[in-house]
């Protein structure tokens, strides 16, 4: 006779095709309020580099391993951080990446902005973007308040302080490791 009918059908033009399943909203990973993977990796790199002495250079493979990021993708993140003056890169035998004083004192906001550009919770908050509803929209002041709160939190989270916390956690974890017994 024919193929069994799917649970739902959708009419497209002159033909009937099975409808795509609808995913519940909570399972969707495509959120406009989510920072990019690149920004996440950038923050990880900056914290890792800030835990090291000023004169230490780290090669890309070691940074990729330390931050659990793919090398090919991380190289683009590192280029953006270098363009922003947060890290320095050097090619050759004594090459690698090192954090600059500006990067050590940077905030999470500055790192994210160096990679992704300006952060906006809603398009109505973008400078120069006209929103005809901004004056009458009851949600606009809430979006603006949420934006200010998020940016304030990110601006007050310094890479140096995060690195201190990361180094303290690593030292604590090292102390909790079982000690090898001799003999």
Provide a descriptive summary of the structure in words.
Helices cover 44% and strands 9% of the residues. The protein is mainly alpha-helical and 183 residues long. The protein has one domain: Arc Repressor Mutant, subunit A (Orthogonal Bundle). Strands 1-2 form a two-stranded antiparallel ribbon. Strands 3-4 form a two-stranded antiparallel ribbon. Helix 1 packs across helix 3, helix 1 crosses helix 5 and helix 1 packs across helix 7. The radius of gyration is 24 Å and the shape is elongated. The N and C termini lie far apart (77 Å). About 5% of the residues have low confidence.
Strand-residue fraction? Answer: 5-15%
Widest sheet, order of strands: 1-2
CATH topology (level 3) name: Arc Repressor Mutant, subunit A
The assigned structural class equals mainly alpha
Termini separation: 77 Å
Order of helices and strands: EEHHHEEHHHH
CATH class: Mainly Alpha
Which descriptor suits the 3D outline?
elongated
- What is the overall number of helices? 7
Query: What is the mean predicted local confidence, pLDDT?
Result: 81
- Poorly predicted regions: 22-31
Fraction in helix: 40-55%
Major sheet description: 2 strands, antiparallel
DSSP summary, beta strand count: 4
Question: In the CATH classification, which architecture applies?
Answer: Orthogonal Bundle
Tell me the name of the CATH homologous superfamily: Winged helix-like DNA-binding domain superfamily/Winged helix DNA-binding domain
Number of structural units classed as domains: 1
Radius of gyration: 24 Å
């Amino acid at each position: 006779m024919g193929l069994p009918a799917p649970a739902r059908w959708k009419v497209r033009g002159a033909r009937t095709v099975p409808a795509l399943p609808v995913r519940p909203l909570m399972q969707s990973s495509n959120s406009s309020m989510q920072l990019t993977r690149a920004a996440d990796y950038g923050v990880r790199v900056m914290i890792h580099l800030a835990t090291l002495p000023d004169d230490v250079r780290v090669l890309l493979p070691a940074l990729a391993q330390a931050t659990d990021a793919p090398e090919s993708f991380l190289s683009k993140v590192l280029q953006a951080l270098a363009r922003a003056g947060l890290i320095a890169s050097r090619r050759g035998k004594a090459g690698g990446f090192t954090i600059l004083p500006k990067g050590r004192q940077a905030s999470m906001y500055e790192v994210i902005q160096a990679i992704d550009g300006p952060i906006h919770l809603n398009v109505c908050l973008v400078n120069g973007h006209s929103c005809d509803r901004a004056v009458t929209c009851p949600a606009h002041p809430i979006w603006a308040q949420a934006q200010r709160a998020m940016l304030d939190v990110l601006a007050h989270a310094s890479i140096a302080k995060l690195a201190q916390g990361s180094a303290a956690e690593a030292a604590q974890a090292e102390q909790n490791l079982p000690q090898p017994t001799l003999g």
